[in-house]
Here is the input.
Amino acid sequence: MRRGEQGHGQDRTFGSLRALSETLEDTLHGKELVTSEQASEFAGAIGSATASKGCSMFNRFSIAFLLPTAQALAGKGPPSRHFAAASGFEDHPDGQQRVLGLSSRGWRGTRQRYNDQELLRNSSFCLVPRGRHLGSLRFLEALQVSEAPALPAARRAQGWLCPSREESVPSLGAQIPAPSLPPLLTLLFPPQAACIPVLLSGGWELPFSEVIDWKKAAVIGDERLLLQIPSIMRSIDEDKVLALRQQTQFLWETYFSSVEKIVLTTLEIIQDRINSHITRNYVMWNAQPGGLYALPQFSTSLADFPFYYLALGRSPDKEFTAVIQAVSPLFSQSQPIIKLILAVALSKYCTQIVVLWNCDKPLPPRSTWPSTTVPLSVVEGEHKTTSSRFFPYDLIRTDAVLSLDEDTVLSTNEVDFAFMVWCSFPERIVGYPARSHYWDSSKGRWGYTSKWTNEYSMVLTGAAFYHRYYHYLYTFYLPASLRSMVDQISNCEDILMNFLVSAVTKLPPIKVTQKKQYKETMMQQGSKMSRWADPEHFVQRQACMNSFTNWFGFMPLVHSQMRLDPVLFKDQVSILRKKYRDIERL
Here is the structure.
């Protein structure tokens, strides 16, 4: 209801509530303690005020929730948590409310001014009663997520309202204030934190309830049993509170954080209705990374995606397919690509090697390629583009893909170790060449660096493992404009793949071992000059960083300071006791 449209009865009720809260504020002023009689008197006064017919349904529910808590404070001794009461219920021009708190230790009165966003951010539970329909976005406001406030993480999870433990106790909940309703987009984007909605209306049809399990993200209450709500919320342990808050954050970020995501979610649900034979199941919608990234056209089985191994209680199959991109003609058996094929073929986990012939020269005869113990297939595409290395070829049947450049130098031990690490992190990119990004404040843009630093955010696909599903996402999820840009400059496809995987998983890649150089430095006769030696190559990659960021709408790359080495790596023990012996010699 907009300001100015409220009835005279509501105005009288608001005035009574303001007077009551001001009376309590005067009582608290200059005093350190609040007596139980004062708390009981305030609770009774609130109950009388809310009996007015002019009081809105929303405010009655909010005060009714506070009433039993105040009575408990007065009659049964201090509870484990305290309640917060707003000193005014009318719309504030600055969108702020003054909050009074009765604490559980010594009946200490605390007074502090909070704005709506801060109150939601620091509260564990948010009441969403019938008086606020879902169209007003009060329900969605409770889910919104942003940068966390300047409080320790453990205290944020418990719902602290004040800056220090000595000044406050964990909050049981916060009433959702009633500011004037701003436009839709203004309410969708303000920086607020996850707050567990407590729904006090059993008849609501919740957003996307056809696919979203709201019981994992909200507390479903009964407005007929309103006085039991405080005890119900007190009975929820901290682990459950954390799980609920994590789910609210996931749902908000995945389906509600922008108009684009709301529209995309709606369209995907409609598509699932039409194509009922290829639909996402309940787990895909309610678990990371969400239904928008789990494309049913790829598969309807959870086992075919890299995100659900843990939930299914299984591990990836111990086999991989090596995909080598060839851009130079093949003249002799001493070229780097021949050495690479032989080293990869010796891995006990390799089941197939696929060579993508993207060279301008004709495909060499089969006799030119080396004999291997595993199948060797050479694929010559119609369009020899840079992005073709990430096409979901039918030849690739294993979950794991080892992506390689033709001049990559790896030993069999290095291949085996990187693959075993990937088996523990199948949703990430795992490999050797690491790069990083940074914000260039002087130029106001993102930068790309290959310097050796203490952290990284990308692992290049010239020597890396990842799940074959990312081939499908790269080809059918990313827009054709991004792939065309990559193909036009023959650069940045590895950066784009890192952007995609980090956007889906919200996790960094994983670098293995201390190896820095992974390219063959000697130029072969007749071979094309490496693109890494082209000065324009680095400039293009800087521009790609910002173009990709603009399309994603944010910077998805995540920094990491972790590097995984084999056990006993560099330890002063016999070399015979080490599993990956060659890694230390390289």
About this structure: The first strand starts at residue 83 and ends at 86. The radius of gyration is 30 Å.
